[in-house]
Amino acid sequence: MVRHYLILLRTFWLGGLWASVYLVRPLLEHRGFFPQHGMEVLHVMDGLGLVCGAIMLLLARFSQPLQWRETPLQIMLVMMVLSLMYFALMPWWKLQMMMLHTISLLGLIWLMMAPAQVLVRDRRHG
Fold first, then answer.
1. If 0-12 CB within 10 Å is exposed, 13-18 middle and 19+ buried, where does residue 51 land?
2. Cβ(34)–Cβ(25) under 8 Å?
3. How far apart are CA 89 and CA 32, in angstroms?
């Protein structure tokens, strides 16, 4: 049951991030609203991703002990740290965009490595 919530939260985080970076940003840039107004959308999505990551950690931790050496968990923790660093780069929007592209790439690696695992290995399925 927890695994389904983890998959849902990961889908929201990565889907929202990719949609805002690769769909919304180019559209706003084409219309002339980027970076003045477009960065607000990216700030919100990065913050929501950070919240999703924290909720995922809590859900995984309460369902079973976390294995800190597992790669999917480590990738998610790096993504959360980069999301925090995104806000530290607030005046430099081009650096923030590079940070979002890095988070998106790590998210793709995370998804390809563990499509159904997310953070914790399901004990019933090995």
1. middle
2. yes
3. 23
